[in-house]
Amino acid sequence: MLEFKKPVLADKKWVDALLRNSSKGCEFCFGNIFIWSDIYNTEIASFNNTLVLRYKVDGEYSYSFSDSENLFALIELLFENSKKHSQALRIYALSKNEKELLEKLFPDTFEFSEMRDFFDYVYKTEDLINLSGRKYHQKRNHISYLKSNNSWEYESINDSNIEECRLFNSQWERHNGEKNPEELSDENKAIQLALDNFSELGFKGGILRVNGKIEAYTLGERMNDEMFCTHIEKANADLRGAYPLINQQFAENELSSYKYVNREEDTGSEGLRQAKMSYHPAFLMESYFARALK
Predict the structure, then answer these.
(1) Mean pLDDT, the chain, as a whole number?
(2) Which CATH number belongs to the domain containing residue 52 in this structure?
């Protein structure tokens, strides 16, 4: 039986233990789960060393789960849970291997769809630090322009500057709020939770200060020993070089011990997709959706 509950900070220890060697995407970091839980009505449960997530959006439940050693038994439990709510089972964020295994374990049971908008973009950390070669020529030019025309410094986010970071975020939201007000409002709620609980969630973050003023910040958390996940990155888009410099400096100063950086999905935004592809990901983490046929 699965016993779902709303995630609270006290759950971090046992959830982290289940996710310590996770091979899945950005959904499977406790901090990410926690800060978005009110937006997606997220609940958590455990089953045989597997973290199970349940979301409720527009009145419908969807489920996802971390790496599972007994997928058949878990899916049977999810079917039972879905029947209690008189809904067809919906499973979100399946890896390609999980999709193929489900097809074998439950033939003619699910319809599958590729979730291209939710593929995670994963980069080699050394590429983000060094920006070597012709493919990063434009990034280096933007960074050189900012450095040549301004005084600047990088700072790790800490208790002494986190309120400045919060102020910059509020200014950024006001400046960009008209683009997609509902989406940005939801994101702002998640960011405030992240900043309110920054240390407790084990986040790392960085600030770019230009001519004494914060012009960019970023934050995220460990996924596993090889991979860090960047959850939030905001910069003054009118300041040439701000985005590539905060990205490069954060990787250099905070992430050099990780082989990879997961910079999450593009959510179907063409502009965001182009920006993420311009950093030449090492690979994309595929994601699939499954819906039971009955």
Answers:
(1) 96
(2) 3.40.630.30
